[in-house]
Write a structure and sequence with these properties.
Elements: E1 13-16, E2 21-25, H1 29-42, E3 47-52, E4 56-61, H2 68-85, E5 93-98, H3 105-112, H4 116-124, E6 128-133, E7 140-143, E8 158-161, E9 165-169, E10 172-175, E11 180-182, E12 185-189, E13 210-215
Parallel strand pairs: 5-13
Antiparallel strand pairs: 1-2, 2-4, 3-4, 6-7, 6-13, 8-11, 9-10, 9-12
């Protein structure tokens, strides 16, 4: 697909991605979620799929329905609407009950020079949004983490992290849906089932879902 040369009216970068898709590079994670929700709500003819990343949106297209010449105008209008609606909280919200007993909880508190209770309070006080999903089925990358908890992942990943482990790494928090290798810092565990192929939809956490953690 040929990307139109006329620039978007907002600070995004638009890149070709094969013959039937474009990639939007966005300045901040919350804008990815807001624009994704706006595009899905509009159901614009010619946009056949929207896939969120950390700072990107992959937009799958049908060029027969949405010519390249119209693409900038469509995306700019959606982006402006997304900015205007970014303060709304009308997405689904999931509450996860957590037992804060993680293997790294004490070391996180030590690194920050605070008590374990303070770490728990900071983790539970934030409003999170699933930015994108990946790594394994049902694993959501949640933004909204308290700035002080943005610590690097382990230098050497664990060969096996228990299912339900609530963890942090860099700017994200997340929950391991199943037992798997992982290098995130473990704060606690939840009994919530993050992915069930018999459920509709199978994933409990999906891009745009709002999440709250509650200590048990």
């Amino acid at each position: 697909m040929t990307v139109p040369t006329r620039p978007l009216r907002l600070p995004f970068r638009l890149l070709p991605y094969g013959e039937r898709a474009v990639l939007l590079e966005l300045p901040a994670a919350p804008m990815v979620t807001a624009l994704r929700e706006e595009l899905l709500a509009r159901a614009e003819p010619g946009i056949t799929g929207v896939v969120a990343g950390a700072r990107t949106l992959l937009i799958e297209l049908d060029p027969a329905q949405l010519p390249a010449a119209q693409l900038s105008a469509v995306l700019s209008a959606a982006a402006l609407a997304a900015v205007a609606a970014s303060g709304r909280s009308d997405s689904d919200e999931v509450e996860l009950r957590v037992r804060y007993d993680g293997a790294d909880l004490a070391s996180v508190a030590e690194q920050l020079g605070v008590s374990v209770d303070t770490v728990v309070e900071r983790h539970t006080s934030a409003d999170y949004v699933v930015q994108f999903c990946g790594f394994s089925p049902g694993f959501g990358y949640l933004t909204g983490l308290h700035p002080s908890l943005r610590l690097p992942r382990l230098s050497s990943p664990r060969p096996a992290v228990p299912a339900g482990s609530v963890a942090i790494a860099d700017e994200f928090t997340g929950v391991y849906p199943r037992r798997s290798p992982g290098g995130w810092l473990l704060l606690g565990t939840t009994s919530a089932v993050l992915f069930d192929p018999e459920r509709n939809p199978p994933a409990l956490l999906r891009p745009g879902t709002r999440v709250r953690f509650r200590a048990t």
